[in-house]
């Protein structure tokens, strides 16, 4: 047995182990990591992949994250809002097509009319998706940013039982310095690192299954930052993860900082998925649609590396093109029916089955709720890993930053 094989059999990992695994580049090594993550997924989750039909119901946002194509200051974007009927209709379509779960996503707004609108949609979806094959209706994931604890409570209660309500609130990075570079200072009061963590605590207190995640391959990010992200997810005792490769957006404000080339970026993102599975074991992990920007079969590769959730886009095609957080988003010209047929075949080819008519709750959530007290406090972020900032050997490349990985392939995209 090689040292890598021994490492992959471990049940606990040091920061140095995690950094080493994240930085694998030799095809044989990457395949060993992939295989281990896939087998652990089978062991801890099973062989089913669950869908969350995603409805991107508005591209209006009050915030201005520098990496984002629908940020507030992007004036070149035609804004849209789906009305209540369109949202409910999309959710009912998902349920009739045997998706057990839908996801509502939009830009971040905190005004009362928005909060009440979402509350209303949650109630309608829960009631409107009840059927013979889904007797308790569809479960719902919300991805609507940081809100007050009262708002979280209202939305959670609108969904009825706690088990069917999930919330994804991404941190994007657990490194406070990098976080502040991604968000303009004049908006710091609206999207501050500390308030994001508080929002995650409030979600947990409101009873949601809580998910977070980050971007992989950000300019200036290091492998030890990614390791710190995994430690952050561990300390948060997260139920779900939604992570994706950083893809540059022409509507964003980071065009001059470039992005990694697709090959190294895809491998890094897949390594991150696999290592999260090794460390976090029974959490739900989504194969981000952004992986498909890097390779036609990117999402399937995500499934092969330990992901167990897919989020087919069921937003009406007429507005889909206007919800691009990053460039070259796939599937924007397909109808939901196209996505359904195309994805199911792809999943089967990965040796997995679709969990039709099932909520696909996080196993970790169930395990957590069986513990005394059910909920656990979110610990404060510890000091960054002792490895942070130390040059990292990645294959034959010595890198202090993820941006170094692609050198000399690393390119700067021009406006
Ligand atoms: S990432 Fe989210 S909160 Fe930030 S600008 Fe984009 S939609 Fe708004």
Automatic annotation (TrEMBL):
Pfam families, sorted? Radical_SAM (PF04055)
Instruction: Domain (Radical SAM core): give its ranges.
Output: 47-286
Record field: transmembrane:
none
Question: What cofactor is needed?
Answer: [4Fe-4S] cluster
State whether keyword Iron applies. Answer: yes
Fetch the InterPro entries from UniProt. Aldolase_TIM, Elp3/MiaA/NifB-like_rSAM, FeFe-hyd_HydE_rSAM, HydE/PylB-like, rSAM, rSAM_sf
Which keywords describe this protein according to UniProt?
Answer: Iron, Iron-sulfur, Metal-binding, S-adenosyl-L-methionine
Q: Which PANTHER family match?
A: 3-METHYLORNITHINE SYNTHASE (PTHR43726), BIOTIN SYNTHASE (PTHR43726:SF1)
Name of the protein described by the UniProt record: [FeFe] hydrogenase H-cluster radical SAM maturase HydE
**Which gene is transcribed and translated to give this protein?**
hydE
